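Tutorial handout. Part one gives the primary structure; part two gives the three-dimensional structure as tokens.
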Amino acid sequence: MSGKPRLTYLNGRGRMESIRWLLAAAGVEFEEVYLETKEQYDKLIKDGFLLFQQLPVVEIDGMKMVQTRAILSYIAGKYNLYGKDLKERALIDMYVEGISDLMQMILMFPFSPPDAKEKNLESIKERATNRYFPVFEKVLKQHGQDFLVGNKFSWADVQLMEAILAVEEKVPAVLSGFPQLQVFKTKMSNMPTIKKFLQPGSPRKPPPDAHYVETVLKIFKN
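Part two.
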């Protein structure tokens, strides 16, 4: 093994994408193994590779880590993206949990039945503009700093940037009423590690398509 973290998941965003984002933002190169069949998934379970029989799994520092939140917390702590003390960590956790609620809606959207797509898209737009983005607009405005917590780049900034771009793919003008977030997005986009991740050919995955949805349903069917 090369010593790089090794990510095992499907060749698509899903629950692994936030992990890719955080590693990339920390400037960490990683390797990926993609599952394409239910048999591959079943073999991982049979071999005891998945602690709770769930993906994603990340091999890092001699551990096979599962549970997305645990993986992200570990990476954030390891690469100094988790605040300077318990209070900053609590803020980062609160912001990340809030953003995760929004991201969960986006994650499930491709699996919506056709007749529910429009309603679910409206829900994403409504939640983003009325519940989640106003919080971060206010935080940035009140402390007048570039980053959400402690005027230092953290996991919360990475997660918010991922969420902004994911919502914009579906609602292009979603930031029109949020000038602070527009500035934040521009600054984040120009950070060298994130700029690199946003370039074509990076490990960032495209929006889920019909093939990805089909693969997910095939692999995880009971």
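Part three, for discussion. The chain has a mean pLDDT of 93. The first strand starts at residue 6 and ends at 9.
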